[in-house]
Amino acid sequence: MIQCQSKKDKEPEFLFRASLLVNENHTWYKGFEHLADLLYERSKGRMKLEVYPSEQLSKEIEAIRLIQAEVIDMTTTGSVLSNWFEMAIFCELPFFMRDSIDMKKFINSSIGQQMEKEMIQKTGLRPVAFFQRGERHLTSNRPIKHPDDLKGLIIRIPNVPAFVTAWSTLGAKPTPMAFSEVFTSLQQGTIEAQENPFALIKSAGFSEVQSYINLTGHVVSWSYPVIGEKQFQKLPKDLQTIFLEAAKDMQDFEHQLFQENEKSVQQELKKLGLTFIEVDKEAFLKKCEPGIYESLSPDMKTVYHQIKKI
Ligand code: CS2
Question: To 10 degrees, what angle do helices 281-295 and 161-169 make?
Answer without folding.
Answer: 130
